[in-house]
Design goal:
Rossmann fold, 7 strands, 11 helices, globular, alpha/beta
Length: about 375
């Protein structure tokens, strides 16, 4: 990415570009609307959950560097407002499907930090018994249906869940998140077309954090106004400021209500930014420290904390107590994970859907 490339606002009109044209980027400082805060108790809970996710992800990164966590690790630091704002728009009976950047969604949905950390450590007390790891968090009791390692692989699964809700006659809604890069996968077009054709209750949320791995949005998508990518498939779109938990919540509440009532899918583009690399293995050579610092000026956690303080909902001491409590809870989660045993060797064949002479399995 050339450092001379100009930035444009997310709502800028599409322009005809050649491969050498400057890459338009979403502006991290959109005009701030008047805040429409929830009740004080709910607002404090939002801040508490966002802080818990941030401290969890920071500690997970530390544990990965100390070889306590194997495989890949994708952190959602910077995207906490998108996570909490979207999940708080759901009922407990609604379904949530995320990408491989799944820790924050599990925590926001209510999975205990101890279980999530133990899963990262590959231990039996993890939410998947240590078999899923970072990219495959799952908690059926909270209708969090995963964590998927395949880019765009969660889209048809979410639509299948929506089909099940339609088939059984419930008013449950499925919220499916995916990255901007996944909007170029074949599953995106196939899934949105089918969801619109069959009028399935699915809210598709594209997390536009400006990069598909290390490739900027304008270099991997001919259409950079992602809210519009479902229009030709019969799925209307809208956009929220993914760095603002209040705006994210308001937009997705409206989308969920619309889907629940009309039984038609909706696409929401959440414009956000990840402060860390795509994964822990990412050298981040595709962006500058200045760019990251520019987006950090809108860090969603201190911004929301300051808003609550300005509104008289919370004082500085209360904000500090929330942070201390989050750190203490993550300390306990790490201790829990370290004390949990590894799965027994014979459990290797559990939940393997294969029958044959080489691997034991079972039909379910």
């Amino acid at each position: 990415m050339s450092q001379s490339e100009p930035e444009v606002t997310p709502s800028a009109p599409e322009q005809v570009r050649t491969p050498d044209s400057p890459a338009p980027r979403a502006e991290p400082n959109p005009p701030a609307p008047e805040p429409n805060l929830p009740e004080p108790e709910a607002a404090i809970e939002w801040l508490r959950t966002m802080t818990l996710i941030r401290r969890f992800e920071e500690r997970a990164g530390e544990m990965y560097a100390r070889a306590k966590i194997g495989g890949f690790l994708h952190l959602s630091i910077g995207e906490e407002a998108t996570i909490v704002g979207s999940t708080r728009a759901l009922r407990e009976t609604d379904y949530l499907v995320s990408t491989y950047r799944s820790h924050g969604y599990a925590l926001a949905r209510g999975t205990e930090p101890e279980q999530v950390m133990a899963e990262l450590f590959g231990r039996v007390d993890g939410c998947c018994g240590g078999h899923g790891g970072s990219m495959h968090m799952f908690d059926l009791s909270r209708r969090f249906m995963g964590g998927y390692g395949i880019v765009g692989g969660n889209l048809p699964i979410a639509t299948g869940i929506g089909l099940a809700s339609d088939y059984t006659g419930t008013d449950d809604v499925t919220l499916c998140t995916f990255g901007d890069g996944a909007s170029n996968q074949g599953t995106f077009g196939e899934t949105l077309n089918l969801a619109a054709l069959w009028r399935l209750p699915v809210v598709f949320v594209v997390i536009n954090n400006q990069f598909g791995m290390g490739t900027s949005l304008a270099r991997h998508s001919a259409v950079t106004d992602l809210q519009r990518k479902g229009e030709s498939l019969g799925v209307p779109g809208t956009r929220c400021d993914g760095m603002d938990v209040v705006d994210t919540h308001a937009v997705i509440v409206e989308a969920v209500e619309r889907v629940r009532e009309d039984r038609r899918p909706v696409l929401v583009e959440a414009v956000t930014y990840r402060f860390r690399g795509h994964s822990m293995a990412d050298p981040e050579e595709y962006r500058t420290k200045e760019e990251v610092a520019h987006w950090r000026e809108r860090d969603p956690i201190p911004a929301f904390g300051a808003l609550l303080e300005a509104e008289g909902i919370l004082d500085a001491q209360g904000r500090e107590e929330i942070d201390r409590a989050a750190v203490a809870r993550i300390d306990a989660a790490v201790e829990f994970a370290e004390a949990s045993p590894f799965p027994a060797a014979e459990s290797l064949y559990e939940d393997v859907y294969v029958l044959g002479e080489y691997a034991r399995g079972a039909y379910h």
